[in-house]
Amino acid sequence: MKREPFFWITVSCGFVIMAFILLPLIELMTAPSLTMLKETIQDKDVVRSIWLSIYTAGLAALISFILGTPLAYLLARSNFRGKQLVEGIIDLPIAIPHPVVGIAILSVAGKNHWIGQVFSELGIRVMGSVTGIVMVLTFVGIPFYLNATKNGFESISPRLEKVSRSLGASMFSTFFRITFPLAWRSMLIGIIMCCARAISEFGAVVIIAYHPMIAPVMIYERFEAYGLRYSQPIAVWLVSVCLALFLILRILTIRSPKEV
């Protein structure tokens, strides 16, 4: 069967986009030698920074899960005045320039703001602390969790919940016995998306906490001090972590059940 010109246009565009994404990454991943990669992963500072990135991103995803799940359910099941405004505010961190995120959080958590003063009295330090890093990563990552989880809840028929309620089950019981088991895959996808986004954050973190140093900040520092040769191996290890997360994401997406 003869292919129409439109087919070849789509294939050509797809090839250009794939090349645009893959060529820099392939060059990055193949530039360091195995010896350099081994030496880098044996560097305690590098391991500490990568682990800190994973740890803080995981905490951000956990906070998003705990606080974001009820809101995602509300948005999926309710129509109320101002709902579009709420959804717009949720998506706002995606569009805000990253350094602005750090400045905004510091404006609230700094000593010149009453919230920052409360933190200070409670002994909670935001500037230059793991707490500050987690706050930033939660800010930039929570929209991804909320949107994925909201889509998961929307794919579940409300009739199932109504049947459960009609049989005398409480809202809590209905959620944990009916809704949660059906939406868990979307929630897990949201957690992975949130975690992956958080791991990649640099601009906001470097304003809040240059130290302790997460992996993106260390990559930047090594690049500024020593150039590509010493920053590439760390980047390769960080990209590998992100790649693993997205492979898990794709596997879950492929296996996701059809909408109820």
Count of discrete alpha- or pi-helical segments spanning 4 or more residues: 12
Compressed to H and E, one letter per element, the order equals HHHHHHHHHHHH
Low-confidence stretches: 256-260
- The CATH homology group name: MetI-like
| CATH topology-level name | MetI-like fold
Radius of gyration: 22 Å
Please tell me the total number of domains: 1
Q: What's the helical proportion of residues?
A: over 70%
Class of secondary structure makeup: mainly alpha
Just name the CATH architecture.
Orthogonal Bundle
Description:
The protein is mainly alpha-helical and 260 residues long. The chain has one domain (33-77, 97-255): MetI-like fold (Orthogonal Bundle). Helix content is 81%, strand content 0%. The protein is built from twelve helices and no strands. The chain has helices at residues 5-30, 34-41, 44-77, 83-95, 98-109, 114-121, 130-154, 158-166, 171-199, 203-208, 215-226, 228-255. The longest helix has 34 residues, at 44-77.
